[in-house]
Design goal:
single chain, 366 residues, alpha/beta, TIM Barrel, seven-stranded parallel beta sheet, globular, Luciferase-like_sf, monooxygenase, monooxygenase activity, Bact_Lucif_Oxidored
């Protein structure tokens, strides 16, 4: 079982942006010294959620130069917010800079406010995402002598006459990682021999207290498609090696009681930040074109904690994760800096990095 770090902190204002970026750089460097396998970054805009996520490809390249042994991933790139040419180019460039140690999570996005900023109708986000991915495949496959690739997809238009540069390091292109929640996404990952993100809930309810039930359901569907695809044993093993389950908040302390108390401090601060952004979300959803159809529970509810949090003493965390390892989940993605990144939050995040590395990972990495 692999362990990766998800840099998902929040800034509450422009005066905090630079310090947050420098603190997350230091947090990532600590993870690189503690036997973690990858650093994952989100892709978000405008709302204070991770200022460096406005172009996380740039930040990943910056980190990759400092820690060339690490893998880098995205959880996840909001595909409708990217012109397919820039999407393909950036992935190829980072694929080269990391020597192929790249995992590109892809999804259709969740935030109407971001869609408005990029002139994407929220109702069309799924279709634009699918079309962008299909266009990117055409661009990656195009040779200079091939006919032009014409782009006409929502706000994105163009005509590519030559080819995407640089060429990819990975044959074809870097591994994409769909979220295995829809049959089409699971099949895309499986048929290409790619890993996938395995969720712990089933829409329309985003939360619950039985996450493993959902993880097993989605994982079994994805693995079934993967085995049906006729890949070699090596391709199947490589895909499962990076198949990922994500926890938005991972917090480890010496005792279960301490971990729960500190988790609640983290979640109260996180929820306050979310509520602070609610005014802008309401503006974004003021018309039918951008109204969401699902709602995430308050972070202090047991439904949210049960789905998105992993916490406890090292022994409790090992006990929790063992069934996931036995199921075949290859990578645990750990949100260790969730919420506003105060000095205390960073201390707690570093505490978790150290305890996971020293006392949890040796029992599960094998």
């Amino acid at each position: 079982m692999r362990f990766s770090v998800f840099l998902n902190a929040r800034s509450l204002g422009p005066d905090q942006d630079r310090k947050l970026m420098k603190d997350l750089e230091a947090h990532a460097r600590l993870a690189a010294t503690l036997d973690y396998d990858a650093i994952f970054l989100p892709d978000h805009h405008f709302n204070g959620y991770m200022p460096l996520a406005s172009d996380s490809f740039i930040f990943a390249a910056y980190l990759a130069a400092q820690m060339p042994h690490m893998h880098f991933g995205f959880s996840v790139v909001s595909v409708p917010l990217h012109h397919p040419v820039r999407f393909a180019e950036r992935i190829n460039l980072l694929d080269q800079l990391t020597d192929g140690k790249l995992l590109v999570g892809v999804g259709s996005g969740t935030t109407p406010e971001e869609m408005i900023g990029f002139a994407v109708d929220y109702r069309d986000a799924g279709a634009i995402s699918e079309n962008n991915l299909a266009i990117a495949e055409q661009l990656w496959a195009k040779k200079m002598e091939d006919a032009a690739v014409t782009i006409a997809n929502g706000p994105y238009n163009g005509r590519v006459l030559q080819r995407i540069t640089p060429a990819a390091y990975t044959p074809g292109h870097a591994r994409l990682m769909p979220v295995a929640m829809k049959e089409a996404s699971s099949r895309r990952a499986a048929e290409n021999g790619w890993p996938a993100f395995i969720p712990a809930f089933t829409p329309p309810k985003i939360g619950g207290t039985e996450p493993f039930v959902h993880v097993k359901k989605w994982f079994d569907i994805y693995k079934g498609f993967l085995l049906e695809a006729g890949h070699s044993n090596e391709v199947v093993a490589a895909a499962l090696d990076w198949t990922t389950h994500t926890y938005q908040v991972v917090h480890v302390a010496e005792t279960d009681e301490q971990a729960r108390d500190e988790l609640e401090v983290i979640l109260r601060s996180y929820q306050e930040a979310v509520e602070r952004e609610a005014e802008f979300n309401a503006r974004a959803e003021s018309d039918d074109a951008n109204r969401k159809t699902d709602r995430t529970p308050n972070a202090l509810t047991e439904d949210w904690i049960g789905t998105w949090c992993l916490y406890g003493s090292p022994d409790t965390v090992i006990e929790h994760l063992t069934p996931y390892r036995d199921l075949g989940i290859g990578n645990i993605l750990c949100g260790t800096t969730t919420g506003p990144l105060t000095e205390e939050r960073l201390r707690l995040g570093n505490q978790t990095l150290n305890l996971l590395s020293e006392r949890v990972m040796p029992a599960l990495k094998g």
